[in-house]
Amino acid sequence: MSQQTRSVTVVGLGPMGRAMVRQFLEAGVEVTVWNRSPEKAEAMAELGAKRAATVAEALAANDVIVLSLTHYAAMYDVLGPAADHLPGKVIVNLSSDSPEKARAGAAWVRSHGAEFLSGGFMSAGDNITHPASYIFYSGPREVFDRHAELLRPLSPQEYLGADDGVAQVFYQALLVIFHPWMLAFDQALAVIQRSGHDIDQFLPYAQRSSEAFPFFMAEYAAAAKAGGWGDASAFRMMDAGAQHIIDASAEVGVDATLSNTAQAFWRRAIAASEQAGRAVSIFELMRGGTV
Questions:
Q1: Where does residue 42 rank: exposed (0-12), middle (13-18), buried (19+ CB within 10 A)?
Q2: 20, 10 in Cβ contact below 8 A?
Q3: How many CB atoms lie within 10 A of CB 209?
Q4: Angular region, 28: left φ>0, alpha ψ -120 to 50, beta rest
Q5: Those residues with Cβ within 8 angstroms of residue 212's Cβ, 6 or more apart along the chain or in another chain
Q6: Residue 86: enclosing H or E segment and its boundaries?
Q7: pLDDT of residue 4
Q8: CA distance 212 to 124
């Protein structure tokens, strides 16, 4: 590759932005950085990055600009005042937001003469070198192909298609799984600890149990394509199971809000099935309308 393709600008130096800068530098990529709070940019400069004094200077430094911001609204706030520097640039937005906001952001960037890729960073926190870490990309295939090698140091790449929003569809769908899991695991740990038992003793059993998750995912994905898992009998069993979890939590003073929410869904499925005279799955209730 030419020297020009071995340089990049990173805008936004939160934990993910700083992790990206480190990976680029380790791969021998020249990095220019900009951040609203200058101390974070100074820290990256100490590692070998070039610090831009302004957003305009950061945009002028390189053709490819990687954004790591809180949301897409921040992109307008940051790039808007320097929009006259956007023509000819490639904006790779790895910020999290909704698919529609990603599509609107892409249109805004292109309206100012720049190219655009959307990304969703699936990583173990800010550990982007973790074996499970990877990045969803979407946007024009030719733009992705042209810059894939430059972006490769960040994490393995999964290109999903030309729709600017699809990277966020997949990214947010995976976070739909992760957020309740985080809360549920905290509830489980609280039950163990408040019951007078050792979290370290419990942990390997939780990890062992999680090995079955891929099996359940495949089973429920197949069921979803046919309308969703379960029937009235299964829903009643899950309702009873949820009550046992709620009782076990309440007995030791642990907040069971999440389990109460789960039980409410099972009860909705029971009621809907009784009303329809057929099994109405939670998948069907969540997606809205009949499958």
A1: middle
A2: yes
A3: 10
A4: left
A5: none
A6: none
A7: 44
A8: 20
pLDDT digits (tens, 9 = 90+) for 10-39: 999 999 999 999 999 999 999 999 999 889
Q: Are strands 115-122 and 134-138 parallel, antiparallel or unpaired?
A: antiparallel
For residues 127 and 133, what is the distance between their CA atoms, to the nearest angstrom? Answer: 8
> 228: closest CA among 168, 288, 166?
288
DSSP secondary structure, 224-291, as one string = HHTT-S--HHHHHHHHHHHHHHHHHHHHTT---HHHHHHHHHHHHHHHHHHHHTS---HHHHHH-S--
What's the pLDDT tens digit per position in 121-161? 998 878 889 999 999 999 999 999 999 999 999 999 999 99
Pair 150, 8: CB distance under 8 Å: yes
The SS3 of residue 159 is: strand
pTM (two decimals): 0.92
Sign of CA dihedral 279, 184, 219, 130: positive
- CB of 81 within 8 A of CB of 55? yes
